[in-house]
Amino acid sequence: MISSVLLAAAIGAGCPEQTRALNSAAEVIGRTYLDVRVASQIAADVRAWARAGRYGDVCQDRDAFMARFNRDLDVYDGHFHFERPGGEDTGDDWLTAWRAESRKVNAGVREVRVLEGNVGYLRLTSFYPWDLAGPKLKAAFALLAETDGLILDLRQNGGGDDQTAGQLAGAFLGPEVTAVQDVDMRGRKAADPLPKL
Hints:
Blueprint: H1 2-14, H2 16-32, H3 36-52, H4 62-74, H5 94-101, E1 109-115, E2 119-124, H6 130-144, E3 149-153, H7 162-173, E4 179-185, E5 188-193
C-alpha cells in the first residue's frame, strides 16, 4: 500500500503541469457545476486522479492527456470539455472542428421534403451556430412554407448551439413566447430568454 502511494506521488511530482491542470479543473467543477453534491464528487475524483498520477504515461503528450481527461469527464457529463488555454492551435479545438464539419453535414439539415397530404418533413441532426445553419434552415423553410403541417424530426439530434435551437423555438411559438425553459444555477432559477428573431 505504501509503495503504491509513493509511486503515485512520484508520478504526480513528475508531471506538475498536469497536476496543476487537474487541480484547477477540480476547483472550477466544485465551484460551478450545477448540482453541488455531484460537483463535490466529480471534483474529489479529479483531485484523486491528480494525486494518483492517472495520466503519468502521457506526461509529455498534452494532446493525449487532454483527450483522455475529456473521455474520463464524459463519464460524468458529456458537456465537459477541457482544452489548452490561450487559443493555441492544438488540433483539439473541438469547436473549430465541429464548425468545419458543418459543410459536410449541411449544417445539420439532413432531410427536407413534402410528404403526401402536403405535410412538410424536416430532419435536423444537430443545431449548428446560426451563421452556418441559418441559411440552410431558411432554405428548408422556404420549401416547406406552403405545407399544411410539419414534422420536425429531432431523433438522434446531438444538440449544439442553443441560439439556433432558440431561433427555431421562437419561430414556431411566435413573439409572445419569450422563454421556454428556466435555468437553475445552484438554487437561483431564472428564465432563459429565447433569442430575438
